Amino acid sequence: MNWRDMPEMDEAADQIQGPATGLRQAGNGLLLVDLYELSMLEAFWANSMAGTAVFEFFVRKLPSSRGFLVAAGLEQLLDFLSGLRFSDVELAYLRESGHFGVRFVDSLAELRFTGDVDAMAEGTPFFADEPIVRVVAPLPQAQLIESRLINLLHFQTVIASKAARLVLAAPGIPLIDFGLRRAHGAEAGLLATRASYLAGFAGTATLLAEPTFGIPVFGTMAHSFIQAHDDESTAFERFARVRPDRLTLLIDTFNTEIAAQKVVQLAPRLQAAGIAIAAVRLDSGDLVEHARKVRRILDEGNLSSVSILASGGIDEDQLQRFIREKAPIDSCGIGTSLTTAPDAPSLDCAYKLQEYAGRPRLKRSEGKATWPGRKQIFRRYDADGIMIGDTVALESDRVPGEPLLQPVMRSGRRLSGPSSLVETRSYAAASVKRLPADLRRLESAAYPVEIDPRLKKLAASL
């Protein structure tokens, strides 16, 4: 029996939908928040606590498998803050939910973000204890945005940091995001395309990334297309005649080397029809050995122009092996290891109150202590432009180095229009090149981050 046919389940479903009807359309709105944010807002409202608050987002410590992180997600955060408001549907739900007083809910109708934001540019490498975003706003506003701010900055930073490592592991090999199907949800899959492209990937297989972000899209075929045919060569030819542009044939469904020979046999017939085979794809087995054998078969068959695309569980270690063993692999599709970042899928990050009503604030919790006040990161470089050390200091103190936090929003308004992803990608590439050589080689190395003595003195005095 379908559960909808059961009266008691029908009633439960009505109760679930009830006042929430239409909330799916507002799924990216202000109910996408932890309950305690609104609970605190009601307490702030009841006690007229709306003084200026300073919050900072930072990572407490780097994962053991990361020598650096790459800041990402700022663009989506600024979009969120620019449009911050409760919809009528959301307010109706809150009134009828019974969680909050009606007068408090009514007050939320006028809520907008009117604060200031300073941030590191997306694509900037950073380290532990370095705030990458600072929010200065009335306390209720700054508090309400906590959950979504962390959600946006954390995820894209995880993916951009992983993607940067993958790019560094395979210099000269274009990498393509194949990870949508393993991503933890639709938004994660789409934002992963942006974060990976920002960090140096050549493109993605996720079609929606092209109209959304202008990211180049690439596609091949699935094994099911081959399996649906009684003959592998017929499958290749049918696909080629329908999809001749940038034609890539998947050749490991049955026997990789035999399939490569079939490609050689098919090529003259396709050439006569004006169709060129651009690449073949390997997706299983020892990719280095298969690539060598396939390369030889293609070259001997006068198909030296056909490139080899590898995919299938590829991570940094395999990419470094490809380079070390000079495997004839021309490009790679990276899926699971990119969009799930299994070696470091989460960061020990936080968004914490550092100042309220003009007074510095800190937290002394064991293992989670914070540095108080509005801070700035000053980065120093050697004569060749390579990073040599950072200092975390109070914003009001002048310290040698380049200040990394820059104004991006004032009084709730962006200081510039949406950033160009192409420009952000170029900036990220240039910034990663300025990392010390051992970090670019993905070796275990500690980058020096100092806490300014005046900041230490302030923390001790509170």
TrEMBL record:
Q: Which CDD domains match?
A: NAPRTase_A (cd01570)
Give start and end of each Nicotinate phosphoribosyltransferase N-terminal domain. 31-153
Domain of life where this protein originates: Bacteria
Q: Name one GO molecular function term.
A: nicotinate phosphoribosyltransferase activity
Top-level enzyme category:
ligase
**Catalyzed chemical reaction(s):** 5-phospho-alpha-D-ribose 1-diphosphate + nicotinate + ATP + H2O = nicotinate beta-D-ribonucleotide + ADP + phosphate + diphosphate
Looking at the record, the residues that make up the Nicotinate/nicotinamide phosphoribosyltransferase domain are: 175-355
- What does the record say about PTM? Transiently phosphorylated on a His residue during the reaction cycle. Phosphorylation strongly increases the affinity for substrates and increases the rate of nicotinate D-ribonucleotide production. Dephosphorylation regenerates the low-affinity form of the enzyme, leading to product release.
Cited function? Catalyzes the first step in the biosynthesis of NAD from nicotinic acid, the ATP-dependent synthesis of beta-nicotinate D-ribonucleotide from nicotinate and 5-phospho-D-ribose 1-phosphate.
Name the family.
Belongs to the NAPRTase family.
Q: Which pathway does UniProt place it in?
A: Cofactor biosynthesis; NAD(+) biosynthesis; nicotinate D-ribonucleotide from nicotinate: step 1/1
Its Enzyme Commission number(s) read: 6.3.4.21
* Protein name listed in UniProt: Nicotinate phosphoribosyltransferase
**Nicotinate phosphoribosyltransferase C-terminal domain spans which residues?**
402-458
The record lists the membrane-crossing segments as none
Q: Which UniProt keywords apply?
A: Glycosyltransferase, Ligase, Phosphoprotein, Pyridine nucleotide biosynthesis, Transferase
Biological source species = Dongia sedimenti
